[in-house]
Amino acid sequence: RTGARRVAVYRWHFRMKNFASRALTALIAMPILIGALYFAPWWAWGIIATVALVITCVEYFALTHRDDPLGRWFGTALTGAVYAALVYTDFGRTRPLLALFAVALSTPAAMIYTLARPGAQETALARMAAMAMAPMYLGVMVAAITCLRRASTDHVGAGLVILTLFVSWFGETLGYSFGPFRVLPKRYPPV
């Protein structure tokens, strides 16, 4: 085989191993998640979502704030505060001003933090954007899934959560596994 062909075969095997790992993880996690959704109170699902949010924040800020451990903690706390405010207020249904202030003040807080702890000038904008977007991207989405579960006392909320998680997992897994076989050209070639 040629070198390029060998690399392509290696990449295919790596992707399929990763796909198998994802499928196995989903098969193990599904009974736990379904049990928490259908047979436990809504706050049990909220605890699972909170743990998932913290793990996601730690990984996200490890990528965006490599040399700033305080920044990783601050970003995780800021994202957790937005999540907690949105779940507490049921997305502003019970206390709209608290939800509004939590979401609206997270971006200025991220900017002030980045300005107060200057790092490398070349990465300042990327770090500021990453810090400002994490509460919106991570905190709001996980709070939405938690509030979906709490939406009704019967199993409608749990069904909506399952639908949301399945669509996101399935789409992401298909894109990751079969993305290299796309027919259309890349929209942005450097990526």
Helix-strand blueprint:
Blueprint: H1 3-39, H2 42-64, H3 69-88, H4 96-116, H5 124-149, H6 156-178
Helix pairs in contact: 1-6, 2-3, 2-5, 3-4, 3-5, 4-5, 5-6
Task: Summarize the structure in words.
The chain is an all-alpha fold and 191 residues long. Helices cover 79% and strands 0% of the residues. The protein has helices at 3-39, 42-64, 69-88, 96-116, 124-149, 156-178. Helix 2 (42-64) packs antiparallel against helix 5 and helix 4 runs antiparallel to helix 5. The longest helix has 37 residues, at 3-39. It is flat. The mean pLDDT is 84.
What attributes characterize this protein structure?
mainly alpha; flat; 79% helix
Q: Kindly state the number of beta strands.
A: 0
Radius of gyration: 20 Å
- Continuous helix count: 6
Helix amount, in percent?
over 70%
- Strand count, sense and closure of the main sheet? none
Report the span from N to C terminus.
28 Å
Q: How would you state the average pLDDT, rounded?
A: 84
What is the 3D form?
flat
- Order of helical and strand elements: HHHHHH
Instruction: Provide the low-confidence segments as ranges.
Output: none
